[in-house]
Write a structure and sequence with these properties.
With 259 residues, this protein is α/β, with parallel strands linked by helices. The protein folds into two domains: 163 residues, Rossmann fold (3-Layer(aba) Sandwich), CATH 3.40.50; 66 residues, ACT domain (Alpha-Beta Plaits, 2-Layer Sandwich). Helices cover 25% and strands 25% of the residues. It is built from six helices and 15 strands. β14 and β15 form a beta hairpin. α1 crosses α2. The protein is globular and about 50 Å long. The chain binds ribulose-5-phosphate (5RP). The site of ribulose-5-phosphate (5RP) has 17 residues, from α2 and α4.
Length: 259
């Protein structure tokens, strides 16, 4: 069981920041792309400590995960295969020669690796900026640990500045939108976008989220909602955060598996 909503602690500085090239003057700032590559490399190192040759990895979706796929691909002989949360990640892994399995054929995964749009001090997340939230939630639910990889722009004191993605069955778009308005949100249909499940996304701004798990449950209960982008009932177990100073690890202060 994962525990919920405990404050995070900084447990370890994993990698110093900065580029590898030597700088005799002021080092330049790392770009966001470099921050993503740094955290992805740290995640790949960490994942290699959790896997066996017969292990199946859970893999999320997004630009940070793309970097993770690139980083783990050179070690593909160290694990058996992966389960993917999107067509996008499936394509990228297959291009790297990583075998991608159907989740229905996998009963156990040591770890699931994914990014986030926001993550708070209790390791609750908003996800779904890339529209893969439902499959992400499904694959994550099978894994023993959720490793979230972000740059520090994603760390927030309270969730909600990033519009909350809600995946809906198309015929329920308007009825779900009215219910979300009743909760204080302003839903906007993501134009020209269908999820890998053939559904639509409402991006909901203006929601107050003092209790992420409660709101997650309320939104999931609306008929026509496939899933919402709050990952709080089951949040992350461990976070790697990339900043100009390097990559640091944060984990729950209690109720977690030791890592
Ligand atoms: C996709 C997601 C992504 O994890 C989230 O949008 C972060 O993406 P990125 O790494 O590109 O910032 O939830 O559905």
């Amino acid at each position: 069981m994962r525990c919920r909503r405990h404050h995070y602690i900084v447990t370890e500085q994993l990698r110093p920041g900065g580029r590898s090239a030597s700088h005799t003057t002021e080092p330049s700032m790392l770009t966001q792309e470099e921050l993503k590559r740094n955290v992805a490399a740290a995640a790949a190192e960490y994942v290699l400590t959790c896997v066996q040759p017969d292990s199946v990895l859970g893999v999320g979706t997004g630009s940070t995960v793309d970097c993770f796929i690139d980083a783990i691909a050179i070690h593909r002989d160290r694990f058996r295969a992966a389960v993917s949360s999107s067509e996008r990640s499936t394509r990228r892994m297959q291009e790297h020669g990583i075998e991608v399995l159907d989740l229905n054929d996998v009963a156990d995964m040591p770890i699931y690796v994914d990014g986030a749009d926001e993550i708070d001090h209790g390791l609750n997340m908003i996800k779904g900026g890339g529209g893969a939230l439902t499959r992400e939630k499904i694959v994550a639910s099978v894994a023993r640990r959720f490793l979230c990889i972000v740059d520090e722009s994603k760390l927030v004191d309270r969730l909600g500045a990033f519009p909350l993605p809600v995946e809906v069955i198309p015929m329920a778009r308007a009825s779900v939108a009215r219910r979300l308005e009743g909760m204080g949100g302003s839903p906007m249909l993501r134009q020209g976008f269908l999820t890998d499940n053939g559904c639509e996304i409402l991006d909901v701004s203006g929601l107050e989220i003092p209790a992420p798990a409660v709101l997650e449950s309320h939104i999931n209960d609306i008929p026509g909602v496939v899933s919402c982008g709050l990952f709080a009932i089951s949040g992350a177990d461990l976070v790697l955060v990339s900043s100009q100073a390097g990559v640091r690890r944060m984990s729950r202060t209690e109720g977690r598996q030791d890592i």
